Amino acid sequence: MRQRLFRLLSCFAAVGVVTLVAVRVLPVNAATAGFAYLLLVLVIASTWGFLEAALSSIAATLVFNFFFFPPIRTFTIADPQNWVALFSFLATSLIASRLSTIARRRTADSLERQRDLERLYTFSRAILLTGGDDPFASQLVRKLAETFGFSAAVLYDRRSGQFHRGGPADFDGLDDQLRDAALSGTSFSDGNAMRLITAVRLGSEPIGSIALQGVSMPDSVLQSVANLVAIGLERATAQELAHQVEAARQSEQLRTTLIDAMAHEFKTPLTLIKGATTAVLADHDPLTASTREQLTIADEQAEHLRELIDNALEMARLDTAHVEVHREPARAGEIVKEVLASMEAAIDNRPVEAPAAPQGSVIALDRRLIKLALKQLLDNALKYSVPDSAIAIHVRANEDSVTFEVTNRGPGIAPEDRKHIFERFYRGQAVKSQIPGSGLGLNIAYSIARAHQGDLTVASEAGKTTFRMTLPINGGRKN
């Protein structure tokens, strides 16, 4: 109010100064004085606004009439043409002051929009460059308050349920409103306290909300700020996922390195033992029957131990997120024979039904991995079937796929266990305390089948359980 009064007094004083100059200092005619008053009104309009310019126009009209229209020094106008001139001057000054005020306001609005764009640009750059040990959301809200000059700013992240605060002032007591805005996507405003609350959306879904205090801003700028905050939160989420993926990748790489090192440490002494027994047995020097028998047993067990170590390490490698498959053409029947031969000791004279595979059952597969999967299925059948009962291994083929079936005559798998049977470390409730095992074998066989773009399923009833591993003949899509 005091500032407005000072402006009005200054306007009247300016009109008085122009009048004094036009009348006493540099006497001029009415036309020159009129242009001087009009120029003064335009300057006032462009500097302060329409109200000051309008009052200055009225004051200038009055003194213009008093000092320049006859009869001089009276407010009476004798010539009607002077009335037209006087009112034309008043209308011109008012219209000019109004147009000047509009132009001034538009210029101010343009400058304000430019400042808003500069602030939005600065804030967007801060989102891209923000990093460090502090949580990204906390840095984001501090940068928001700093860039736009808010006395307080609060960001509510709906995903984490956390509040992040920025700005020099405290901004408490709005937690419930922030949660409501984040849940329903609504907005609140308090003009007296200069507070704004709006939802932060990613697309059409609210992912949080922000509360701002201390500076008013247009809705368009507020929504732009909310959109940038949403982009920042999404960027932070993407960065966190990328870090997790990189950590998992490094962990996987370390795991592979340790497995390879362990394989080397196990196989080196075993290779020496195997080489020594083979060399002695191949020597032409005569050996006693007992010595040759013991060396033969040691040689066979060394070979068996090597196979066990290979299988154990292969299982460890397969217990990872990705299984590498190296396909080559192979006959399904030959693979079954090789698996039965390698597990002869474990089978231990158990009856095994293995009919000849159909003609033409050639399939592109990783021979080593499929043999390992079949070993797991056969070992599972030996463990969980009735002693001395028969185990059946069938190969079935059609135009598109080859199926390996392993059937045992055990008690069957309970329905509640079937949906979990291929999960890592899972073992049925009825057997996990009676039969030793790790719960990894079926999971690894399942992983191998899926890596070949095939499938492993189970059908079970009392007295009979069949695992079916189906593989596409052409190898499916490339790994």
Explain the overall architecture.
The protein has 479 residues and is α+β, with helices and mostly antiparallel strands. It folds into four domains: 2-110, no CATH class; 131-240, GAF domain (Beta-Lactamase), CATH 3.30.450; 246-318; 328-472, Heat Shock Protein 90 (2-Layer Sandwich), CATH 3.30.565.10. 58% of the residues lie in helices and 15% in strands. The protein is built from 13 helices and twelve strands. The chain has helices spanning 2-25, 30-47, 50-68, 80-129, 136-148, 175-184, 219-282, 289-318, 332-342, 344-347, 367-384, 415-418, 441-451, and strands spanning 152-157, 162-166, 188-190, 195-202, 205-213, 328-331, 352-353, 362-365, 391-397, 401-408, 455-461, 464-472. The strands form three sheets. Strands 2-1-5-4-3 form a five-stranded antiparallel β-sheet, sandwiched between helices. The chain has a five-stranded mixed β-sheet with strand order 7-9-10-12-11. Strands 6-8 form a two-stranded antiparallel sheet. Strand 9 (391-397) and strand 10 form a beta hairpin. Helix 1 (2-25) packs parallel to helix 3 and helix 5 (136-148) packs antiparallel against helix 7 (219-282). The longest helix is centred in the middle third of the chain and has 64 residues, at 219-282. It starts with a helix and ends in a 7-residue tail after the last strand. The model has no long low-confidence stretch (mean pLDDT 80).
